[in-house]
Amino acid sequence: MAKKNANFFDLHAEKIVIGLCVVLLIACAVYSLGGGRFSIGERGVGELCKAAGDASEQTRLALLNANPASGDSAQKDPAKEAVEELRRWFGQGAEGLVRIAKVQPILSRTQQFPPLYTPISGATAEERRNLAKLVEPDIPIVVAGEAMVDIPTEKPSLRDYDPRSSFNGTRSKRNYVSVAAQVDLVRQDANFIAERYPEGSYLIIAQVHLQRMDESNPRRGWEDVNAYLPFTLPDRPKRVDRPDGGFKFEGLDVFRQALDDGAEHIARPALPGKSVKSPQVPYLDEPPPYGDVTASQEEAEATRRVKKWTDLAKKAMSGRRPFDSPDMDAAFILARAGAATIGAKPKETNDAQTLLQRIIAKLPKDRRAVAQGMPRVPERLMPLVAHDLDVSPGHTYIYRMRYELYNFYAGQPGELANPRDAERVTVLSDWSPPSRPVEVTGDLYFYVTKADAQRQEVTVSVFRVTRKGSDKRDYKIKIGSEIGRKEKRGAKGDYATGAICVDIDFNRLVSGKKDVAMVYVDPADGVLRERLLSIDKQDKFYQKLSDQRSASR
Known about the structure:
Blueprint lengths: L7 H27 L10 H21 L16 H9 L4 H7 L39 E12 L16 E16 H10 L10 E10 L8 E3 L12 E4 L5 E4 L1 H10 L1 H5 L27 H24 L9 H13 L5 H17 L2 H7 L9 E8 L7 E11 L19 E3 L9 E2 L4 E9 L4 E10 L2 E9 L8 E2 L5 E2 L5 E11 L2 E9 L6 E5 H6 L1 H13 L1
Antiparallel strand pairs: 1-2, 2-7, 3-4, 3-8, 5-6, 8-9, 8-10, 11-12, 12-13, 14-15, 16-17, 17-18
Helix pairs in contact: 8-9, 8-10, 9-10
């Protein structure tokens, strides 16, 4: 139909219909919301909404001011209390409601933007652990001697070291002290389990450390010992900081693999020399037997070991060979191993147990406290060894030992309760108890006895000890002079020490007092050592040698 022929209804019919529908809809809504059709307790929707809002506000205020239920806080988790749960959902922060609505809350800025990145490996706070405590070594066993020792000209790396390869170096007569101690692997396993270390965790020894105290000069206290190794230890991994705030260690896997491959040589290095004595510690001379054996073979081997260790313990008590003097520490360690051996014949085991009780009764009080407790199976006591070649004849030393362990969680801060512990590539055990005193003896002794600053020289007295007694020769020593020599006239004998003087300090301050220091080197190992005039003149063994020589005249 053309528009010019249409009336008003034809032109506006659609609008009229829509308008009537809207009016009808509004009327229905007014009737429904304002009438009694949806009322509760004669209250309409409007009144109900207002009442619900008031109740909600009262509930919110009550939750904010509510006290937690009484009870033992050590047995209940506050985060799981009903009031605390409601407070998180409907309290000031409305944590639960925010999560449901997927709304990102606006927080006040508390640090620089963007926030620092903390690297973690995925462990939750509950799964993180502390570093396991390392068990300290047991009572050290010490042995001193003098032997021809093979000193390599150039030490190979640990990876290239092979004790069976041909020797290339200098053979030198040296005084030495070897120190050995045991580590209780049962206690260490318990420490690993307590900190939830992976099953099968074990000790990866990075280095064995020694300290000594010279009884001739106790005021110097404990001093670090440069323990002898026939190889060079691997380089430590280098820490590299990342821009995101994290860090990593370059070469960490290579370092650990090198330690794993050379574990035996690091923990128990051999002192190269045919006449070298080793500390008498169980399984140091022969490893524990492994493999399939019959019951009778196992009993025979266990019985042999018990007899061997019991016999050595008796010799240690009386100072018979291979012991130079009575050694109650070694006697205790050996008898304890025999008493704790499993599978031996009852008679031998009972003999070892009886001997052990006798030895403990004779130990000093401080040692007895360390020795108490159930004997550990010797196969679970791992021996560690270190050698001190920087000792002087006539001196008496006391030693202590500890070990350095590869940190399983180096570079993994997300695994540890204290992330800073991940910055440590290695960790250290506590020190062992101190050893018994051990005296270093030899056939040549030398002491700085006089000094002449004007002539820039010192007098060194060299004593040569034989079965007949001791002889002395005095030598004027300047920088570059060899200390002692092989004499051809007069008092014949070999007084050559092999040491060369490299420096003399006539103004050395020691404890605030002026002293004279002579620095010398042994060409065999190239290590610099020094002697102080004040200490050498007061040395007890020097005085003993001087008195013996005077009495023989």
